[in-house]
């Protein structure tokens, strides 16, 4: 499980990216790279990293479900994800 501070930092980055998204697009269209450089570094969407919504795990993230592979497997085996069952052939 990720530390709470790490999860909070990622949420803070998401809010900052959303706040400056319009301004970034406007400055990019105008080609004003000097003004773009003055924006906060964490306002860049490149700095975002997908994390599991439940545990905060940064690796093995499944975009379709928004959780890590470990959490996905546990939930699927418990029957908590509708339409997902273990394959057998």
- Helix-strand sequence: HHEEH
Provide the β-strand percentage band.
under 5%
**Principal-axis shape:** elongated
Q: Which blocks of ≥5 consecutive residues have pLDDT under 50?
A: none
Q: What structural class do helix, strand and pairing data support?
A: mainly alpha
Q: How many strand units?
A: 2
| Main beta-sheet annotation | 2 strands, antiparallel
Sum up the structure in keywords.
89 residues, mainly alpha, elongated, two-stranded antiparallel sheet
Polypeptide structure, described:
Binds 16S rRNA, required for the assembly of 30S particles and may also be responsible for determining the conformation of the 16S rRNA at the A site. Part of the 30S ribosomal subunit. Contacts proteins S3 and S10. This is Small ribosomal subunit protein uS14. Keywords: Ribonucleoprotein, Ribosomal protein, RNA-binding, rRNA-binding. Belongs to the universal ribosomal protein uS14 family. With 89 residues, this protein is mostly helical. It has three helices and two strands, in the order H-H-E-E-H. It has helices at 4-30, 33-38, 69-78; strands at 61-62, 67-68. A two-stranded antiparallel ribbon has the order 1-2. It starts with a helix and ends in an 11-residue tail after the last helix. The model has no long low-confidence stretch (mean pLDDT 93).
């Amino acid at each position: 499980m990720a530390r709470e501070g790490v999860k909070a930092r990622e949420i803070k980055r998401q809010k900052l990216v959303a706040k400056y998204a319009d301004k970034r697009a406007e400055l990019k269209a105008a080609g004003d790279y000097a003004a773009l450089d003055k924006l906060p570094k964490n306002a860049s969407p490149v700095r975002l990293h997908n994390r599991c919504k439940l545990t905060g795990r940064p690796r093995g993230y499944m975009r379709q479900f928004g959780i890590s592979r470990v959490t996905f497997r546990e939930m699927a085996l418990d029957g908590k994800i509708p339409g997902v069952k273990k394959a057998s052939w």
